[in-house]
Each structure stands twice: as structure tokens, then as C-alpha cells.
Amino acid sequence: MSSIFQRFSTGLLAGLIAAGVSTSPALAETPVDITAGDGGLEQKDCAAGAEYVRVDSSALENSKACFFLIKPTGWVAVNITGSYGIVNRLKVPVAVAFKLPDGQVYWQRIIEPGKLQSIDVDNNLSTVVEIQVTPVATSTGAATGDLTVDTVNPHVVSLRSAGRNAAGKILRLSWAGVELSSLDRNSGFNDRLDASFKVVPARDGSQCVSLEAATYPGVFLTMQSNGSVIVQSNPNDKGATWCPSSVSETPTGTRFASALNQTRVLTTSGTGGVATTTTRTAESVWFVDQGLALPGN
């Protein structure tokens, strides 16, 4: 009797498979929305191999998502809410950036091979926003960013000096206000986030743009009436509005004129400062790159 049942079951299973009918597969893992990356890390089913970075999250079907390193290095920007743990089954360290559930507080943790890191801070689930295996490539040539306004999913950009005085340095927020710093995509996540700005509709209602700090909602890159540059919440609308224009001569790039006084453009000041000037030189040309860090939602 049991052998007859076994033959019947086997035949029925083969028929179902041939007909394309589902036969109670294992619970599928949720595809994660990868908002940016360089192709070095790819999400696959965890059963696809033994070496991966696993994000454990209560918001995911089957409570996990696995990322496989398919190149020597790689990075992905994601937005995995409800996360509570990271397992590194790669043979190299992995850096994971995550946001705490309350406010705009970010952390980055380096997880060694074979280790597990809890990100369930104070029993509150976190949002994983970036996974990275360094050293990854960073922009040193032509601009890679987008200054068009997208009100649903704002573009995030970083501004890189095209001039000689501070060649390649990045405009960033600091305790002093605004400065230039030697940053690239391998720098610490929080430093990179301080050098990233959302492109949002112009506060003065014009066709220009405003640049909102990615890590501090409501804080904008602003020119004051004396020409100095600061970051400010509730700023003068025109002071927080910048009108970009393309530069065709070498170095090619973008200039940002202030809507408060369009004779003045954003410029480097020495090797580490940021100001505005009425003089159009290479020091007032910027490469607009894809943001060095994305803040997640």
C-alpha cells in the first residue's frame, strides 16, 4: 500500500511540475529596492551560495535579504526598514550604515568576516541604508549627478571643486558651517552624508533649485547678504536658492549663482573655505556628482 501511494505521489508531483503548478515552494525572499550602487553587490536568494552579507529584518518576507559580492568590491544604497541584525559570511570586512528609528541619527559599523552585528539599538529596529565592501571607485572625472528637481524621489548630489586651489575637494557641512574636505566614497558614512545635498524646488518659487542637507531636513545651503555661505534652517528664500549654469570652457562643470544676488557665484576660498564671488574663474566651477551618501527614506 505504501509503495502504491509513493508511486502515485511521485507521479502526481511530476505532473504538477510539468504543468507548471506551484507545489508549496519555500517562502520567497523579498526583493530589496536598490536605489544606487556600482554593481559589485547583488541581492540573491540566500540559498544561492555560502558567502554573502545577510540583513535580518522584520519588514522582509522570510525576515532576511542576502547580498553577494560579484566583483572584488562593491556598494549598494538601500532602504531596509525593521532591521535588527547583520551577518557577514564574506571573506572580507563589510561596512553597513543604518539609521535609527527616531530622528536623523546614523551609524556605520564594520563587520569582520564570520561575525554578526546587532543593529537593534535600544530594542528599536533600524533602517539599513548602505552596504559597502571597500575600496570602491569614486568620481574623479566628469560629473555624475543630476540637478533636475524630482519632488517624489529627490536627487542627492555632492559638489566637487573643479578649480586648482582645492582640486577635487568636496563641499560639506561642519561644526564651522561649510568647508571643503578631502572625501571620497570610501570615507566614513557620516562624513559623506554631511557632503550630500538633496536637490529640491527653489525656495523662492523660481525655476532654479535649493540644496537641502541630506542629513538635516529643513537646513539649506545659503548665501547671506554679505556674500558669505552658511547652512541655515528657515533661511531667506532667495539666499537659499541657487541658479545653476553649465560651463563650456575648461574646466567644464557647473556654476551656481545666488538668487539673492546673481552677480555672485559659489566659489572655493583658498584650500578649505567656501564663499561667493563676482569673479568667474575656474575656482567657481563645480562638478556635480551623485551624492557620496544617500540618506534613505
Secondary structure blueprint with pairings:
Elements: H1 2-18, E1 36-37, E2 41-44, E3 53-57, E4 64-69, E5 74-88, E6 94-99, E7 106-111, E8 116-118, E9 126-133, E10 156-161, E11 170-174, E12 177-181, H2 189-193, E13 197-201, E14 209-213, E15 219-223, E16 229-233, E17 242-247, E18 253-258, E19 261-269, E20 273-277, E21 286-290
Antiparallel strand pairs: 1-5, 2-4, 3-4, 3-5, 5-8, 5-9, 6-7, 6-9, 10-13, 10-21, 11-12, 13-14, 15-16, 17-18, 18-19, 19-20
Commentary on this structure:
The protein has helices spanning 2-18, 189-193, and strands at 36-37, 41-44, 53-57, 64-69, 74-88, 94-99, 106-111, 116-118, 126-133, 156-161, 170-174, 177-181, 197-201, 209-213, 219-223, 229-233, 242-247, 253-258, 261-269, 273-277, 286-290. The chain is 7% helix and 41% strand. The termini are far apart. The protein has two domains: 27-133, Gamma-B Crystallin, domain 1; 156-290, Trefoil (Acidic Fibroblast Growth Factor, subunit A), CATH 2.80.10.50. The chain is mostly beta strands and 297 residues long. The model is unreliable at 1-27 (pLDDT under 50). Strand 6 and strand 7 (106-111) form a beta hairpin. Strands 1, 2, 3, 4, 5, 6, 7, 8 and 9 form a nine-stranded antiparallel β-sheet that branches. The protein is elongated.
